[in-house]
Structure formats: C-alpha cells, structure tokens
C-alpha cells in the first residue's frame, strides 16, 4: 500500500482528484468506480473545477458506483443516484447512460444484484476504484461480518452506520436499514484502488484497517492484499500511523 500524506481536507481532496484526473487523461475511456459519503465531496469539486477549466474530458468515461439504499427511487434526494448527479455527473460531460448506480427501487433482490454484477462484468471491470472508509471499516456498504461477500448483495446496515448517515436525513428513523453494495471480490478486482480518508474520527479505523490484521470484521483490511492501493489521508486521519508509513 502507498500512503500519500496531505495537510488537510482540501489538500487530500486535490491529491486524490489528481490521481483520478491522471487516470482519465491517460485512459479517457476508463471505468471509474465511484463512492458517496462526505469524504469524496472535495474530490468531486476539484474534478468539476478542472473539467470547467478545460483540463478534463469525461465524454468517453464510464462510472460504476459502490452502493445504494434499498427502497429509494433514483430521484429521491437521499438516494446515491441523486447524490452523484448533484455532486458530479450533472456538472461534467459524462454521458448519463454511462453512469451506473445499483437500482435501490428494484423489488426483487436477486434480480437487482444480478443486474448490477452483469453491468460491471459487461464493462470488463473497474480501472480505478475510489473508496471512502466507514468508522467500522466498511467499504461501500460491506459491513463487518464473518466472511468477505464476493458479489453485489443486499446488506443490513450496522446501527453505527445508520447513526453515522443519519446526519444526511431528517431523523435516524428515516435512514433505510438495508442497502445494495458491490461485493469485496469486485472491489478487489479493480486494477487500482484509491482510498480517501480525512479527520481525527477516522484515525483509529485507519490504523486497524491498514496496519492491523486482515479480517472480514474490518472489511477494508482486505485492501492490504491488493497490489495497487493508494491511501490519501490528511494529517488528522493519519495521526495514529504517522511514523509507521
Ligand atoms: C457511507 C458509504 C461509504 C462511505 C462511508 C464513509 O456509508 N456507503 O461508501 O465510504 O459512508 O462516509 P464518510 O466519507 O461520510 O465518512
């Protein structure tokens, strides 16, 4: 694993966005794996800015997102479809037909999962996967568990995840308790992985996930076994591993 040290959130966002930019410049028709959450917002702001400045062209790029809440329609303001549209897609020249997010409104769970895996394999896999990190070590919505789930699947969200994400809803009761997520095997098959972490409240899980034991109880720990992972973090997020990376 490579660790890239950033000063603060803005610096982390620029450094991570530079890595994504390089990917799009070197391979304009690449498949980007994208993430939601608060962490990537600054990265998306940089990409939009650089697109507006004329430095980036997403016209041939395809995206696949990690996850989506079950039961939310794509136009629901709390859905990850909406998040991606508002924070990235509608500001750049990516073709909406080339953007993929699991469909949380599909009633049949197996069908929803099967369809999403077919989309990803049809694209030939992911070139660069962006990941955030949940406080319990989740990536996408792969929650701590006794096994690493391979393919797209439905998860029951951990209480701590529901609580952490409640800030984006009117109340905790409004947070869906289930979500579809890309599986660990699919994430691990991405050619390159970029993890973005920021803030003191991620310091403990950063240490566990990246310097601790590899275990499905800390899903992000599996990333230690991937051959091309870059973790970009600010000083606060790296505060417990500083000196060891
Ligand atoms: C959510 C998302 C994850 C994200 C995580 C961390 O649960 N499903 O993909 O990485 O939260 O979010 P944040 O970046 O807001 O800390």
Describe this structure in words.
It contains 7 helices and 10 strands. The chain has a 7-stranded parallel sheet, with helices on both faces. It has a 3-stranded antiparallel sheet with strand order 4-8-7, covered by helices on one side. The chain is an alpha/beta fold. It is globular and about 50 Å long. It is 30% helix and 17% strand. The protein has helices spanning 9-26, 41-52, 80-87, 109-122, 159-165, 184-188, 203-211, and strands at residues 2-6, 31-34, 62-65, 67-69, 99-100, 128-131, 153-156, 178-181, 192-197, 229-234. Bound molecules: 2-amino-2-deoxy-6-O-phosphono-alpha-D-glucopyranose.
Bound molecules: 2-amino-2-deoxy-6-O-phosphono-alpha-D-glucopyranose
Strand order of the main beta sheet, please? 1-10-9-6-2-3-5
Percent of residues in helices: 25-40%
Order of helices and strands, N to C?
A: EHEHEEHEHEEHEHEHE
> For the residues shown, what is the average pLDDT?
97
Rg, rounded, reads 17 Å
Helix/strand layout:
Blueprint: E1 2-6, H1 9-26, E2 31-34, H2 41-52, E3 62-65, E4 67-69, H3 80-87, E5 99-100, H4 109-122, E6 128-131, E7 153-156, H5 159-165, E8 178-181, H6 184-188, E9 192-197, H7 203-211, E10 229-234
Parallel strand pairs: 1-10, 2-3, 2-6, 3-5, 6-9, 9-10
Antiparallel strand pairs: 4-8, 7-8
Helix pairs in contact: 1-2
The chain binds 2-amino-2-deoxy-6-O-phosphono-alpha-D-glucopyranose.
2-amino-2-deoxy-6-O-phosphono-alpha-D-glucopyranose binds next to helix 5.
